[in-house]
Amino acid sequence: MTEKQTLDPVTFEVLKNALTTVVDEMAEQILRTCHSFVIWARDFSNAICDAEGNTVMQGTQDIAVHVGTLHFTAKAVIEAFEGDIHPGDVFAINDPYVGGTHFNDVRIIRPVFVGDELIAFAQSAGHWADVGGTVPGSFDISAKAHFGEGLRIPAIRIWDRGHYRQDVVNLLTSNTRAPGDVEGDLLAQAEATKVAEREILRLVEKYGKGTLLTAFAEVQDYVERLTRRRVSELPDGTWETEDYIDGDPSAEEGLIPIKVKMTIREDQILYDLSGSHPVIGTFLNAGMGTGFSGIVAGTKTFFPEVPLNSGFYRVIDANLPENTVVNAPWPTAVTGFCSGAYEKIMNALFELWSRVMPERALACCFNLEYLLIGGRDRRTEDAPFFMWYDWMVGGWGGRNGKDGSNATSPVFGVGLAVQPFEGQERLSPVVTSAHHIVADSGGPGRFRGGCGVEKGGTLTQLDDTVMSYCCDRARSITWGIEGGLPSIPHGVWLNKERPQGQFLGAVFSNVEVGEGDEFTRPSAGGGGYGDPLLRDPEAVREDVADGYVTVEGARRDYGVVVREVDAELAEWEVDEGATRKERAEIREKRLSWLEEDPEALAARYRGGEVGTSELIRRHGVILDWGTGELLPKTTEGFRAMLQRRTVPHWQNGSPRG
Length: 657
Hints:
Elements: H1 9-33, H2 37-40, E1 44-50, E2 55-58, H3 64-67, H4 70-80, E3 90-93, E4 105-114, E5 117-127, E6 156-160, E7 163-164, H5 166-173, H6 179-207, H7 209-232, E8 237-245, E9 256-265, E10 268-272, H8 288-300, H9 310-313, E11 316-319, H10 341-356, E12 370-377, E13 385-391, H11 421-427, E14 430-437, E15 453-459, E16 462-470, E17 492-494, E18 502-505, E19 507-513, E20 518-522, H12 537-546, H13 551-558, E21 562-566, E22 571-574, H14 576-593, H15 598-606, H16 612-619, H17 632-645
Parallel strand pairs: 10-11
Antiparallel strand pairs: 1-2, 1-5, 3-4, 3-6, 4-5, 6-7, 8-9, 9-10, 12-13, 12-16, 14-15, 15-20, 16-19, 17-18, 17-20, 21-22
GO molecular function, one term: 5-oxoprolinase (ATP-hydrolyzing) activity
Pfam family, one: Hydantoinase_B
Protein name: Hydantoinase B/oxoprolinase family protein
């Protein structure tokens, strides 16, 4: 690390902020010229990298998972074209096995020259709605190798010294279901990198090449110094935990562990993910780049005041064993990493950092999910191919002293925007029928997890259409910390209110659907923080009035008995005597509830005697939510998780609260 700073403080600060503005201008260019609705909803990120490929600056709304990998793809281009990079060149790459994310995230990279000297790279990563493969949207859970997931693009040249290589672009677009959108987005991303080139050269003209190159280096050194200083103020030590993927569909049921050991040693952070499960037979594995990015994003969440660039990465030493779900090699399927291993790494780190920085504690947050519907749109005579590509907001975990955020973008990328229904309905034959906050979805705790939402839709004039869903946590349900309780399961229902209604689960692909079919799905809330029996009864009453908690949920999860005064005016009152009695009874029984026979509880569930939330939160029992069949190994693992994260923080038998 370079301790000496050679730029004067004013020039340094001006250039640091100017570089951020340049990247934000790239984003504005993309928003005004992109073709696909997915990218318009901000599923993209940009960065400036130095001549060695190190990230110098990101923008203010870029997506965490992209930013943590952009230096890898810049370096991959440098390695592939070493000695053969020229002014006017532009490259493309999406390869997750050299540090990219998944095949849909295509990076466009432009070298920036001053005269004959290469001084920087401008990079734009955008999620293309389809890159081929076996299903629309390129999310196929049955894929065990990448060959069914779509185009793998190694570092290739798209512009050669200013000449647009239409033949290469045609090769890419011809292997997708939306060639017009793909080329349009490619051009929008390339234009964004051109904006960056123009602004970088403007800064060179104003401040001089040497000054700007010094700023590139010192911005990274500044972030490293700031991060090391913050880490050195924390206690040394080692902390361990694990999170889970729901299961491996190619094997018997059972949670898939991702184990994380974190060590703080003076001003360095070491992560060891040894012991994580071997690669699984579906696309929820993470590649090397996204495994590292999950570590970066999880860590950065607890250092919000620190900018993010390659200087931050110097403080982190990560061991990601190959051939595991956190570092899957070629040709393992990895497209669903975002809903699989990636966010599990992040949430595991949230728990570890909550122990180190309890003032910033954060329980588990809801899982990123994508619902994809693709087919032929019969609303026009030529029945073009359509892609309805949707993600939802959900609840973040409860915090130390504050409830979790309701209906918030996933931790995967807080910059993601909710797609407006009007735009979706204009572009696709899918009508949104419902979108609302789900009561009782926030994990109960002294500080409640944020609430998730439910979204429903109806299919209209379409043919040859299939549905796919990339999610998780139907079984490894969003958990609480410090005594907090879990949220609710993810999963999609098809025609739920009809006799032929079917629960499709939290991960599936290529399900045939037709005109008139209806679907609905919830997003989970966040996990709770602290013992729910210590929550202020008045806070529970307010939750009932706001529609975040039902009267039944208040009694079941918090032991708070609420009576209606005037429902139309949202007026309720707490029955203090009944609440004391209810809480005492829960304290007396809740340990034994976690030891009741799972088979008997599953039978009671199928008979309608026990509901989903009661089964999960009181008994720690996990079922196949479509059939009601007990999942014994999963239940064993889930109960063990509750015994580790939740039970030790309960004050059973105490009269408090």
